[in-house]
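Supplementary Text 2. Reproducibility record for the structural model of the 347-residue chain.

All settings were left at their defaults, and a single model was retained for analysis rather than an ensemble. We include the record here because the model underlies the residue-level annotations in Supplementary Table 4.
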Amino acid sequence: MSSDPCAPPVVSTLQHDSAGSLTDVAGIEVGHFTDTRRPTGCTVVLTREGAVCGVDVRGAAPGTRETDLLAPGNLVQQVHAVLLAGGSAWGLAAADGVVRWLEERGAGLNVRFGTLPLVPAAVLFDLPLGDARIRPDAAAGYAACEAASRAAPAEGNAGAGSGAIVGKLFGIERAMKGGIGTASVTVAGVTVGALIACNAMGDVFDPATAALIAGARSADGRSLINAPSALLRGELPQPVLAGTNTTIGVIATDAQLTKTQANRLATVAHDGLARAINPVHTMSDGDTLFALATGRVPLADTAVGMTLLGTMAAEAVARATVRAVRQARAVTVNGLHVPCAADFSLA
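Retained model, structure tokens:
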């Protein structure tokens, strides 16, 4: 942080009417694979040149791959992609396709006998919509890489958000469509972006207005009941199988961070989920956030420190979560109709 009293004030370029994107961060590409056979898919975040990575798992029912290597005391310092996928634990197979795609292009860690791409991953549970035997596989992960670019990624019913549903506390027949969303914040030349696939058991609120956007509906399906308030009034939720929900995502910054700092950024970024989702981090959610640092901007050369960076990350996560449900569209699969936020004139 600068201590010069004559230094110009830090000015944020964040605009409320311009959400931004994870791809605003230098060194980041995003690609979706969206399955046409049922609502499911996967999303890859590529860092071909490598990026320092941290992770924080807050949900009690996670489905993850290679998260242990991200601990600050462990050997590996950089990863080459992060995968988000539907399909529950089966969807972790999509990471194999990402590894193959990166290896073909020479991206990865030199382990003497080959170049090994490191691809942590997390999954969400989207099996209720359609044939549960259809889920992301290695071919899906490879296709997501083929589609990756620096362009702002599609939001709503795309990639890992294709089959996402929110507000399932009182049964899936009273839930609403979730999705995937993205946002970014830039302050003093440093950018933090977020990409969030929201499949939460809880309701989703807009922290900027406190408005309820999507969640559990009344028994007749015509209105939102505000699930946290309903729980506190004594309405009992339906039994929910552990792991059948989950919000997963990636935060990225062009700041130069250590592995310890990247893990701290992932931790603080969960504050954004807590602002937008209620209840969150439940026994039936596997909420997991990764934090990537591409290292293009040394923090020592800016007025940005970890406190401000964490504030930016939480804000980007909250906004991306809101966009995930605002951009989602209703689906009807095998007789189950899942409405979206726009259907309730709250978008």
